[in-house]
Amino acid sequence: MEKIVIIGGGSFLGNMINYIESMNAYDIVGYTDIVDNGTVLYVKYIGDDSVLLDLYNEGVTNAAIAVGNNLNNTVVKQRIARNAKKIGFSLPVIKGQNVIIHKGVNIGEGTIIRDAAIIQSNCNIGNYIMIGDNCVISHDTSIGDFTQVVSGCVIGKGCKIGNNIFVGFSSVVTNDVVITDNCIIGAKSLVNKNCEIKGKYFGQPARLKEKYE
After folding, report:
1. Strands 206-211 and 199-203
2. 152-190 per-position pLDDT tens digit
3. Can you tell me the distance from the alpha carbon of 52 to that of 203, in angstroms, rounded to the nearest whole number?
4. Which of 63, 106, 115, 123 would give a disulfide with 96, using CB separation of 3.0 to 4.6 Å?
5. Any long-range contacts for 34-40 (C-beta under 8 Å, 24+ apart)?
6. CB proximity list for 28: less than 8 A, separation 6 or greater
7. Cβ distance 80 to 74 under 8 Å?
């Protein structure tokens, strides 16, 4: 079984441990963080990110990032991913239990697909994305890097969801909608028109409530 280190010791760490365990493909050697949060489940703290190079040289070549998005602000997550890649780590796709992925789906590195999510055929899912529990991503949809689709969302067919987007709890995006980079979609929104301006959208139907620079 290959070894893997988890980068990030915050509130998502416990979930990440469960997902990796359920895959039965990796042995977790520990987690890194800027602070020592003690042993989480059975996984021990092994230091801050300065230990990653030594771990890699010792043969731990896989890493999983347990750092979430701050809504659509992914600066910290991007920095962590760049550092891990520079060292040489592989960042595998991490899947929870009861995930369904159809044939013809492409999924980028470092993406996390949480319990009972469904991704239908011919979707292109980018890098370092998080697909929440019980989400449905309909066929022929694309999702850009560092985007988070939170639990319970339904994304229609043929949608183009950009980079650094946060789609809030239980939102619905109807067929063929385009959402430009760096947008936030509020919880329980109905997005039935393109979101062409960078900003915050919410409501039923969703409307632009705040424009970002």
Report:
1. antiparallel
2. 999 999 999 999 999 999 999 999 999 999 999 999 999
3. 43
4. 115
5. 35/9, 36/9, 37/9, 37/10, 37/13, 40/9, 40/13, 40/14
6. 3, 4, 5, 6, 17, 20, 21, 43
7. no
Which parts of the chain fold into alpha helices (H)? 13-23, 52-57, 75-87
Instruction: Please give the single-letter amino acid code of residue 32.
Output: T
Distance of CA 210 to the CA centre of its chain: 24
pTM of the model: 0.95
Structure tokens given for 27:
């042995």
The residue type found at 168 is G
Q: Is the CA virtual torsion 49, 164, 10, 152 positive or negative?
A: negative
Q: What is the mean pLDDT of residues 25-38?
A: 96
